[in-house]
Amino acid sequence: SLTCHPLCHPQLEGLCSFLQLSSCPEPFLVRFCSSLLALTPELSYTSAAILAQQLFLRRVLSLTQPPSRLLMAALTSFCSKYSHPLCRVLLAALLQEPGEGAEQTKLMCELVEECLEPHSVQLVLSQVLEVPLSEKLLPVLQAVLGRQVRAHLEVLPPELLDLLVLTLCQQAPAFATSLGFARLVTAVLTVYQSQVS
Questions:
Q1: Which residue numbers delimit the Fanconi Anaemia group E protein C-terminal domain (predicted)?
Q2: What is the pLDDT of residue 27?
Q3: Nearest to 105 by CA among 97, 39, 68
Q4: CATH top class, domain 12-192
Q5: What is the Cα–Cα distance from 144 to 140, expressed in whole angstroms?
Q6: pLDDT higher than 80, residue 71
Q7: Which bin fits 191, alpha (ψ -120 to 50), beta or left (φ > 0)?
Q8: Which residue ranges make up each domain of the chain?
Q9: 3-state class (DSSP) for residue 190
Q10: Among candidates 21, 32, 103, which has minimal Cα distance to 61?
Q11: DSSP string covering 18-42, please?
Q12: Where are the alpha helices (DSSP H) in the chain?
């Protein structure tokens, strides 16, 4: 019905609630995400964001140990077609989450390193740079840089690189004793040495 009769957003949210997608068993979650890939036409951005929220948000925010193989399979499947809305939903929640959020941070790093499309990786960078930098976000920035290098995408849009460098300069005093921050600065200077003066 998602294909033949596109649902308006309240209807889609109602359907998600009716199907209890936020708490469905993980084997069903994997099958459901796989079936989404076959939809034609593809889901709209807003519909994909609603599904990302319903399918993954509660599960990701409640992680206290590494995600299961099935949850990662579902995330990877969803990412293969809808990485931008997934990134928007999960990262926005991660950035608002108080405390360390160690498992959530590791998951975001894994998504950046293995699953997200290149334009979504740049979205991650821009979203992280919109909030005050914290120790838990340093690994995410490091993952972004690593992905850029592995994908041979060392060139960032000038405005994004300027914002990254400015943020690092402004935050340096607060991270004077942080080994993670020192590694991040070194990585930026190494990867973007031709663009950073």
A1: 8-196
A2: 93
A3: 97
A4: mainly alpha
A5: 6
A6: yes
A7: alpha
A8: 12-192
A9: helix
A10: 103
A11: HHTGGG--HHHHHHHHHHHTT-SSP
A12: 9-19, 26-36, 45-52, 58-61, 69-96, 102-114, 118-128, 138-150, 158-171, 179-191
